[in-house]
TrEMBL record:
<feature type="domain" description="MsrB">
    <location>
        <begin position="4"/>
        <end position="123"/>
    </location>
</feature>
<dbReference type="GO" id="GO:0006979">
    <property type="term" value="P:response to oxidative stress"/>
</dbReference>
<dbReference type="GO" id="GO:0030091">
    <property type="term" value="P:protein repair"/>
</dbReference>
<dbReference type="Pfam" id="PF01641">
    <property type="entry name" value="SelR"/>
</dbReference>
<keyword id="KW-0560">Oxidoreductase</keyword>
<keyword id="KW-0479">Metal-binding</keyword>
<dbReference type="GO" id="GO:0046872">
    <property type="term" value="F:metal ion binding"/>
</dbReference>
<dbReference type="GO" id="GO:0033743">
    <property type="term" value="F:peptide-methionine (R)-S-oxide reductase activity"/>
</dbReference>
<dbReference type="InterPro" id="IPR028427">
    <property type="entry name" value="Met_Sox_Rdtase_MsrB"/>
</dbReference>
<dbReference type="InterPro" id="IPR002579">
    <property type="entry name" value="Met_Sox_Rdtase_MsrB_dom"/>
</dbReference>
<protein>
    <recommendedName>
        <fullName>peptide-methionine (R)-S-oxide reductase</fullName>
        <ecNumber>1.8.4.12</ecNumber>
    </recommendedName>
</protein>
<dbReference type="InterPro" id="IPR011057">
    <property type="entry name" value="Mss4-like_sf"/>
</dbReference>
<keyword id="KW-0862">Zinc</keyword>
Length: 123
Protein backbone atom coordinates (compact mmCIF):
# COMPACT_ATOMS: atom_id res chain seq x y z
CA UNK A 1 0.00 0.00 0.00
CA UNK A 2 1.39 3.36 -1.01
CA UNK A 3 1.29 6.69 0.80
CA UNK A 4 -0.57 9.53 -0.95
CA UNK A 5 2.67 11.11 -2.21
CA UNK A 6 3.52 7.79 -3.92
CA UNK A 7 0.13 6.97 -5.46
CA UNK A 8 0.25 5.69 -9.03
CA UNK A 9 -0.40 8.29 -11.73
CA UNK A 10 -3.77 7.81 -13.42
CA UNK A 11 -4.72 7.96 -17.07
CA UNK A 12 -7.64 10.26 -17.95
CA UNK A 13 -10.01 7.23 -18.06
CA UNK A 14 -8.77 5.95 -14.69
CA UNK A 15 -9.21 9.41 -13.16
CA UNK A 16 -12.75 9.64 -14.58
CA UNK A 17 -13.65 6.45 -12.74
CA UNK A 18 -11.53 6.51 -9.57
CA UNK A 19 -11.67 10.22 -8.76
CA UNK A 20 -14.88 11.40 -10.45
CA UNK A 21 -16.84 8.18 -9.74
CA UNK A 22 -17.46 7.18 -13.34
CA UNK A 23 -18.19 3.75 -14.79
CA UNK A 24 -16.53 1.85 -17.60
CA UNK A 25 -18.67 0.28 -20.30
CA UNK A 26 -19.81 -3.28 -19.48
CA UNK A 27 -17.85 -6.19 -20.98
CA UNK A 28 -14.89 -3.92 -21.86
CA UNK A 29 -12.75 -4.21 -18.73
CA UNK A 30 -9.54 -6.19 -18.59
CA UNK A 31 -10.57 -8.17 -15.50
CA UNK A 32 -14.15 -9.12 -16.40
CA UNK A 33 -13.19 -12.67 -17.47
CA UNK A 34 -9.86 -12.84 -15.58
CA UNK A 35 -9.27 -16.16 -13.79
CA UNK A 36 -5.66 -16.20 -12.55
CA UNK A 37 -4.86 -16.73 -8.86
CA UNK A 38 -3.74 -13.70 -6.91
CA UNK A 39 -4.95 -10.49 -5.32
CA UNK A 40 -6.64 -7.45 -6.81
CA UNK A 41 -5.33 -4.17 -5.43
CA UNK A 42 -6.43 -0.56 -5.75
CA UNK A 43 -5.03 0.89 -8.96
CA UNK A 44 -4.22 4.19 -7.26
CA UNK A 45 -2.68 3.20 -3.90
CA UNK A 46 -2.16 -0.58 -4.33
CA UNK A 47 -4.00 -1.48 -1.13
CA UNK A 48 -5.13 -5.15 -1.32
CA UNK A 49 -8.89 -5.29 -1.95
CA UNK A 50 -10.05 -8.69 -3.26
CA UNK A 51 -8.75 -12.24 -3.52
CA UNK A 52 -9.21 -14.00 -6.83
CA UNK A 53 -10.88 -16.86 -4.92
CA UNK A 54 -13.79 -14.45 -4.20
CA UNK A 55 -14.24 -13.51 -7.88
CA UNK A 56 -17.14 -14.99 -9.83
CA UNK A 57 -18.84 -14.53 -13.19
CA UNK A 58 -22.11 -12.74 -12.55
CA UNK A 59 -22.69 -12.01 -16.24
CA UNK A 60 -23.10 -8.29 -15.50
CA UNK A 61 -20.09 -7.20 -17.58
CA UNK A 62 -17.85 -6.07 -14.72
CA UNK A 63 -15.59 -8.04 -12.39
CA UNK A 64 -17.70 -9.40 -9.52
CA UNK A 65 -16.56 -10.45 -6.06
CA UNK A 66 -18.66 -11.87 -3.23
CA UNK A 67 -16.27 -10.77 -0.48
CA UNK A 68 -13.53 -8.23 0.17
CA UNK A 69 -10.34 -8.43 2.20
CA UNK A 70 -11.46 -7.37 5.70
CA UNK A 71 -11.15 -3.62 6.25
CA UNK A 72 -10.21 -2.86 2.64
CA UNK A 73 -13.50 -1.51 1.26
CA UNK A 74 -15.86 1.16 2.60
CA UNK A 75 -19.55 1.20 1.73
CA UNK A 76 -21.30 4.55 1.42
CA UNK A 77 -24.79 5.49 0.23
CA UNK A 78 -24.77 6.45 -3.45
CA UNK A 79 -26.14 9.89 -4.30
CA UNK A 80 -28.82 8.19 -6.44
CA UNK A 81 -30.39 6.89 -3.19
CA UNK A 82 -30.78 3.36 -4.55
CA UNK A 83 -27.30 1.89 -4.58
CA UNK A 84 -24.35 1.52 -2.24
CA UNK A 85 -21.01 2.78 -3.53
CA UNK A 86 -17.80 0.96 -2.66
CA UNK A 87 -14.51 2.82 -2.26
CA UNK A 88 -10.97 1.89 -1.29
CA UNK A 89 -10.68 2.25 2.49
CA UNK A 90 -7.13 3.60 2.11
CA UNK A 91 -7.36 6.27 -0.63
CA UNK A 92 -11.16 6.52 -1.04
CA UNK A 93 -10.92 5.81 -4.77
CA UNK A 94 -14.20 4.75 -6.40
CA UNK A 95 -14.40 1.01 -7.08
CA UNK A 96 -18.04 0.49 -8.08
CA UNK A 97 -21.15 -0.63 -6.21
CA UNK A 98 -22.19 -3.51 -3.96
CA UNK A 99 -25.47 -5.39 -4.28
CA UNK A 100 -27.14 -7.95 -2.03
CA UNK A 101 -30.16 -10.21 -2.42
CA UNK A 102 -29.33 -11.42 -5.93
CA UNK A 103 -28.46 -15.01 -4.86
CA UNK A 104 -25.48 -15.40 -7.22
CA UNK A 105 -23.34 -17.03 -4.51
CA UNK A 106 -23.97 -18.42 -1.01
CA UNK A 107 -22.63 -15.12 0.40
CA UNK A 108 -25.43 -13.30 -1.49
CA UNK A 109 -23.20 -10.29 -2.16
CA UNK A 110 -21.88 -8.87 -5.43
CA UNK A 111 -19.17 -6.23 -5.49
CA UNK A 112 -19.47 -4.86 -9.04
CA UNK A 113 -16.03 -3.35 -9.67
CA UNK A 114 -14.60 -1.33 -12.53
CA UNK A 115 -11.52 -3.01 -14.03
CA UNK A 116 -9.90 0.42 -14.28
CA UNK A 117 -10.14 0.75 -10.47
CA UNK A 118 -8.03 -2.33 -9.76
CA UNK A 119 -4.75 -4.03 -10.63
CA UNK A 120 -3.98 -7.75 -10.43
CA UNK A 121 -1.00 -9.06 -8.47
CA UNK A 122 -0.15 -12.72 -9.14
CA UNK A 123 0.41 -14.94 -6.10
Amino acid sequence: MKEKKDWNPLTPDEERIIVRKGTEYPFTGQYNKWDEQGVFVCRRCEAPLYRSSDKFDSGCGWPSFDDEIPGSVKRIPDPDGRRVEIICANCEGHLGHVFTGEHFTPKDTRHCVNSLSILFKKE
